[in-house]
């Protein structure tokens, strides 16, 4: 078993523990149980060693059978943990062992809780913490059943005295206050002390305080280390969950080959950029497509094609700022969104990118150096056009809303909610697609004009005769 890996940091350890196979995790849980049982055994030893002092608060006659029971459970768990290697190969056996271990532990903990006088601290930590730890390490169904069984058993043990059944208890009862008439409040053991010795008020008080101190310390000793350990394990689990969540998100948003954002995430970021663009800010969109990329694949092979895609992606990332949204839109096509960028600046950026790609020399082992080029289609959505689109869109939505609603006056809450929605949806939902398809038309034109160049859809429209063109009127 890989428990020796505790020298690892908690992040590494978390990975290691949760990647272990089921038999190792069961063995780890057994080791935890064993440590707990051993701590109980040490407590018995301590009380027995100081029996002259603690004999007044602990039932020493009962301590011996308890000690023997704790020892038997300890030896049994020790034997079980040594049996995991053979069990590992037969997985069905492992399930039986898991069920057995958790049942024995539940019965044992119920016994300890009852025999110690139903400490709420020990009960709480054992029930909740033990179940949490168990669920992290072994079959959750077994732990869940054991948890329910333990609750029923602890409830039963607590209620039995009300049905006249007395359960042996290690804790000797002592008076907790000094009433005016001592005899009517004394328990049997206190009465014995009073009969044998002349008990003073201070003596009784001392007895009460010492007893409380012993039992409180016992409950803390039996609960806190376990609670700290379980919280530590839980932290490890959460670290591991955080890591895997981050990893999943990274995979969901990133293109595996180029490490750029993927199409889905690029579009999501673009939508967000459009929703948060400020008044008087323009937004530019570029589509970039490598030229004659099929020939690269055909001439040099798919691996070289992949390498080209990686290097072009690196050139893009290195040439653009963090604010720019760069994503792999398709095979050899990239989508670049420049928030708060005017048309002229966007043209300059695109031209610079084109040069950077064209000047980058592909050095591939076993092949002569070569260069690739790219064509660019660009479109800038100016704030004036955005305002026009938003206005037109608002009119349409208002008309639709009036047609749908009754002439009755709407409640203020509804009006407020509607105006909020309207302000959030200022632009039509297909705006991203429109922007991209407009940039795509410019890209097509760039290919048509001979490739390795930047074409702006805004300039294309300006050059065209016959009326003003715009994103929603250009068909
Ligand atoms: N190596 C590699 N090739 C890819 C990948 N994705 C798409 N391709 C290839 O990219 C090529 C694109 O070819 P075309 O669409 O004909 O474009 P082109 O050859 O670049 O020609 P133009 O765009 O007209 O300049 C196809 O052969 C695809 O198989 C990829 O991830 N890796």
Short description:
The chain is of the alpha+beta class. The protein is 66% helix and 7% strand. It has helices spanning 10-19, 22-49, 51-54, 60-81, 84-88, 91-115, 120-137, 140-159, 182-185, 188-196, 201-253, 263-276, 293-300, 302-319, 343-359, 383-404, 412-424, 431-448, 457-463; strands spanning 283-290, 325-328, 333-338, 361-362, 370-371, 374-381, 454-456.
Q: Can you tell me about this structure?
A:
The protein is α+β, with helices and mostly antiparallel strands and 475 residues long. The protein has two domains: 2-252, no CATH class; 263-463, Reverse transcriptase/Diguanylate cyclase domain (Alpha-Beta Plaits). It is built from 19 helices and seven strands. The strands form two sheets. It has a five-stranded mixed sheet with strand order 2-3-1-6-7, sandwiched between helices. A two-stranded antiparallel ribbon has the order 4-5. Helix 2 packs parallel to helix 6 (91-115). The longest helix has 53 residues, at 201-253. The chain starts with 9 loop residues before the first helix and ends in a 12-residue tail after the last helix. Residues 174-180, 183-189 and 417-425 have low confidence and may be disordered. Bound molecules: guanosine-5'-triphosphate (GTP). Guanosine-5'-triphosphate binds at residues 257, 289-294, 297, 302, 305-306, 309, 331-332, 447, 451. The chain crosses the membrane at residues 27-49, 61-80, 100-130, 142-163, 220-241.
